[in-house]
Amino acid sequence: MTLSSLSSHELDFIDDDEFHEECGVVGIWTTQDAASLTALGLHALQHRGQEASGIVTYDGNQFHTHRGLGLVGEVFDDPRVIASLPGGMGIGHNRYATTGETQLRNVQPLYGDFEFGGFAVAHNGNLTNAQLLKQSLVRRGCLFQSSTDSEVFIHLIAISLYSNVIDRFIDAIKQVQGAYSLVALSKDMLIAARDPLGVRPLILGKLPYSQDENSWVVASETCALSSMGADFVRDIEPGEVIIIDHDGVRSIHPFADNTSSRFCIFEYVYFARPDSVIENKSVYMARKKIGAELAKESHVEADVVVPVPDSGVPAAIGYAEASNIPFELGIIRSHYIGRTFIEPTDQIRNLGVKLKHATNRAVINGKRVILIDDSIVRGTTSKKIVEMVRAAGATEVHLRIASPPTQHSCFYGIDTPAEEKLLAHTHSIDEMCKLIGADSLGFVSADGLYRALQEDKRNNQNPQYCDACFTGDYPIPLTDHDMQLVKSK
Ligand code: SF4
To answer: Is 266 in the pocket of ligand 1 (CB under 6 A)?
Structure first.
């Protein structure tokens, strides 16, 4: 396969050559105004999902729900919407659809009326045995309302033989495989849980200004706390279930014998917001260190280090510092290009990357340029950006990537193409370089990535992260995939 043989759709859909985080979640207990705070938190987590958003609140008497397609600012722009969500407890969700098409019925939080009362759940991650569970649940008479994997939680809780909410919830999470960071709301409690390997992030915070001493926040990332004026308390641990009710915060470890962190290493590379702190590590500083490792591993003589914005910026700063080559903003990204604008014709779609990125000729012309990007997916964007930088007068273009080659698909909540569509799966680094049209191409090694995160060198006995998209070492069974119950993209 060559880049020139890729179809028009593959080449040109502006967002088709990036990874997408699947979701962000927020939970609030208790304030005067849970809906507004939840919306603020979701807004800060917008990078984790831009296709739909929803909030469920409980006012002590009944549940209220609003869900819609679009950005948080669009779904909750009308003050009457927030006013229609009264109550001091709430959960919210941003969605990027990886399982289930983007339809309103798939927008979370999902809600059900159970014999113990209302229950809402919001899920970040992806289950790897959801289809198998769904087949069995449907045989038992469960009627699925959506096509998302997350709905299995609702049905597993509904049919559980345990009597109380917490036992039912734990019964459900013990049956699923995959990655999940969950927030759930009943009339009596807010529940937060991470899967036994803690693949996706989830943190606990506190609202210091609330009149209620017992006011807490749960969110995907610390950047959501900043937007709410909340204080960081701690990361929720892999396999931990946190219960927040009128008596305070309790912690349960239902998987006590079976937890060891395999947090997604790509959250540090690309997905998390750079101002977030995960596992006591600043995401921004981690990216700078990855850039410094990249400079050590794949040094090249050049005049200027240029990031592919926005995600390549911290790694490029780290690369420039480590290599003593000046950092310049040689590519400017427009934040105001929407999908709608570029969709009408093939010709306009062809302009996709150029509409999103423009070169700053003043710092590129006549220079040997090191371009820094976070990853290569299909390679179509890299090819166009290299072309643009050459057209702006660069004498050499050396592409450096702040992650190892992405050779494998993610099944744990990141939207990636099928393996055969990943450029690094089908091509050597030399072949990729030639196809992209760079003078040289270098990736940080897996060991370099681990060094940047100040972890022991990765080894099979003691891998600290999920790095399956680089190594193919999947830490959680891919049951649906292996049974061919899911279609490749
Ligand atoms: S496969 Fe890659 S993107 Fe997916 S969880 Fe693992 S490291 Fe993260």
So the answer is: yes
Q: How far is the CA of 405 from the centre of ligand 1 (A)?
A: 13
Last residue of a domain, one of 198, 229, 264: 264
Give the number of the atom of ligand 1 that is nearest the alpha carbon of residue 200. 5
Q: Do 315 and 248 lie in a common domain?
A: no
CA 336 to chain centre: 21
Do 230 and 303 belong together in one domain? no
Q: DSSP 3-state assignment of 304?
A: strand
Handedness of CA 64, 65, 66, 72 (dihedral sign): positive
**Distance of CA 276 from the midpoint of ligand 1 (Å):** 18
Q: How far is the CA of 403 from the centre of ligand 1 (A)?
A: 12
pLDDT 10s digits, 308-352: 998 899 999 999 999 999 999 999 988 776 544 444 455 555 555
Rounded CA-CA distance 3/436 in Å is 8
- 231-255 pLDDT, tens digit per residue, is 999 999 999 999 999 999 999 999 9
pLDDT of 353 above 60: no
H helices of 160-273, in order, are 165-173, 222-228, 266
Same-domain check for residues 246 and 390: no
| Top mutation candidate among 127, 410, 455, 474 for ligand 1, by most atoms within 8 Å of CB | 410
* 233/312 same-domain check: no
Which of 217, 232, 264 represents a domain boundary (last residue)? 264
pLDDT at 341: 43
Reported as a single tens digit per residue, the pLDDT across 373-404 is 999 999 999 999 999 999 999 999 999 999 99
Q: Are 204 and 181 in contact (CB under 8 A)?
A: no
The parent domain of residue 318 ranges over 282-460
259 in the same domain as 323: no
Give how far the C-alpha of residue 52 lies from the chain's centroid of Cα atoms, to the nearest Å. Answer: 14
Q: What is the mean pLDDT of residues 154-161?
A: 96
Q: Is 23 a catalytic residue?
A: yes
344/435 same-domain check: yes
- Nearest in space to 115 (alpha carbons), one of 174, 175, 163, 183: 163
99 in the same domain as 37:
yes
